[in-house]
Amino acid sequence: MCDGFAFMDTQLDEKFMAEALKEAEKSANFDEVPVGAVIVKDGKIIARGHNLRERKNDPTAHAEIVAVRKACNKLKSWRLEGCAIYVTIEPCSMCAGTLLWSRVARIVYGAKDPKGGALGSSYNLFEVKNINHHPEITGGVLEEKCSTLMTSFFRSKR
Predict the structure, then answer these.
(1) How far apart are CA 150 and CA 3, in angstroms?
(2) Burial class (CB in 10 A: 0-12, 13-18, 19+), 151
(3) From CA 88, how far away is CA 64, in angstroms rounded?
């Protein structure tokens, strides 16, 4: 149990990651880096997001940030206590920081990001001493599908 959020089972993790993959495919359709995210509270998706950096000319329009903004609006609170986020790629430092400050209970990601992942691939933001929030982190959910989507996208750019 982490901030009142019970650990989810593998089938549910895969179900929600499949929804995040649908969001990532939306990004790819708009020639955006294919990253998708969904936020879940009480077993239901309350927000969805996909990369919109190119379309919005906004460096902060990562899938996670888009989803967090929608979830906060829906809950009418900046606190996402009791929520889980499912994201296709390991969050970067900006997104991990946002998840820290929004107090999300659980972060579930698909593929690792060795160049910019802030949950262990490059470094782990949550290992920093003196932070006051430590969400549960699960990686590798539908990892191959998430990784293949990203690899295919960048291969098509070369």
Answers:
(1) 32
(2) exposed
(3) 10
Q: Could you tell me the sign of the dihedral formed by the alpha carbons of 53, 58, 59, 60, in that order? A: negative
94-149 confidence digits (pLDDT tens) = 999 999 999 999 999 999 999 999 999 998 998 888 888 889 999 999 999 999 99
Catalytic residue at 127? no
Relative to beta strand 83-89, strand 106-111 is parallel
Please identify which of the residues 19, 23, 25, 64 carries the catalytic annotation.
64
The predicted model scores a pTM of 0.92
SS3 for 6? coil
Q: What is the DSSP string of 70-89?
A: HHHHHHTSS--TTEEEEEEE
